[in-house]
Amino acid sequence: MCEYANMSPAEVRALIRRKEWTKPTSGMAKGFTQANLAILKKDIAFDFLLFCQRNPKPCPVLDVTEAGSPVPRLVAPTADIRTDIPKYRIYRHGELVDEVTDILTYWEDDMVAFLIGCSFTFEHPLMNSGIPVRHIEENCNVSMYKTNIPCVQAGCFEGPVVVSMRPIPEKDVVRAVQITSRFPSVHGAPIHIGNPAGIGIKDIAKPDFGDRVTIKAGEVPVFWACGVTPQAVAMQIKPELMITHAPGHMFITDIQDEKFSVL
Amino acid sequence: MCEYANMSPAEVRALIRRKEWTKPTSGMAKGFTQANLAILKKDIAFDFLLFCQRNPKPCPVLDVTEAGSPVPRLVAPTADIRTDIPKYRIYRHGELVDEVTDILTYWEDDMVAFLIGCSFTFEHPLMNSGIPVRHIEENCNVSMYKTNIPCVQAGCFEGPVVVSMRPIPEKDVVRAVQITSRFPSVHGAPIHIGNPAGIGIKDIAKPDFGDRVTIKAGEVPVFWACGVTPQAVAMQIKPELMITHAPGHMFITDIQDEKFSVL
């Protein structure tokens, strides 16, 4: 994996574009920000952008393409959003209808691509401070839960905030808040510490998405707003056509993680 | 002025709505965030929102109304954007055609209002740390300059970043960076320290907007991205109709300044 970790984002994207890499992107082009993808038609793109703007913690927008342009000029000006992700999912009216390695045949002139920040960006600084990140240790997906916290509605878009959970040793909770506070544009500080019931989570052992992870004695569940929120919310209105990345198959930007810190 | 400083935002807005206050809002409802206003038609609103999203330092969006709704639900759910600002300016094709105390007769069903953060929000924390804010001491407008730094284009919107300048004593420059870094959603950290020519400013004594202020010996000019940028950029495309607040006559939100700090 080391050779992929040391590649530049452009090199990894070229590999993906040539379909020489169709697996998850975790660990590739280390230090560079990976992003979630959601593609919608222009007629609902304004309301979706507004939704993200009103809910910056779960929906940190890193880049939005011009309608019809496949180039994310802000975060990867040499990339093509239609070919540079290893696996895409095509949804029609909210139903998964296809999984593909490029979307050239699905692309239309009125499509707008949203690249949304992901918590990978703050997990490295946590680990660099000696704070364990359990789902990485256990080599599984992060635990995610629907909460009773409503997002702020925008047009037809509404729904609950989805959170990701990381068990943090009691002594490290304050430091974890400080570290992630430095990254407001990739979810930022936690939105809840401790008691799952306080945000409407009935059973911490049963995540709504992702995998269950071990919570050890002396660890506190800490909850961050999660980038699954905007996809879940968009899916709920069953748009005619929506394209996303396949879970774990992210878009790799040219931006280094540290660029998203404010201090 | 003290009675106005201690009023709640809703009380001040009621006063303005009854046209009992038609002057600048500086110092009213102390501690609550004041915002710039730009109203555009829905057909160009997506590109404008995209422009703001791509240029968050000069264009920190605090709220955007649904098309046709005059209610900024996020920052002041009981307010009416058409009546709650003391003075508005009406621009047709980029020309100032009217200055009014409400926009009820100008309001149309496809209008979208943008409320954009303003540096008032970080000036109080600066002063609370004993850092002088010269234009407040000299009771004039802040000095603003066009730079040679281009904004990231979005659709038809493009132009240079406009900056505001505050002379800061050398010993306080680091602290000023730290304090304003805490407020990324209202311009955040400075974008330049020192040498005006470095960002294309030819004569520091001749601001492009606002007033000239005294720079004392031992003080360094420090430059922050300025909320005048999005208005200047929008004006440049000469939209059919655009409505803004009159300078200094701001919208007062229900949000306390400190809510915008990330740490």
From TrEMBL, chains A, B:
<comment type="similarity">
    <text>Belongs to the D-glutamate cyclase family.</text>
</comment>
<dbReference type="InterPro" id="IPR038021">
    <property type="entry name" value="Putative_hydro-lyase"/>
</dbReference>
<dbReference type="GO" id="GO:0016829">
    <property type="term" value="F:lyase activity"/>
</dbReference>
<dbReference type="InterPro" id="IPR016938">
    <property type="entry name" value="UPF0317"/>
</dbReference>
<protein>
    <recommendedName>
        <fullName>Putative hydro-lyase SpAn4DRAFT_1979</fullName>
        <ecNumber>4.2.1.-</ecNumber>
    </recommendedName>
</protein>
<keyword id="KW-0456">Lyase</keyword>
<dbReference type="InterPro" id="IPR009906">
    <property type="entry name" value="D-Glu_cyclase"/>
</dbReference>
<dbReference type="Pfam" id="PF07286">
    <property type="entry name" value="D-Glu_cyclase"/>
</dbReference>
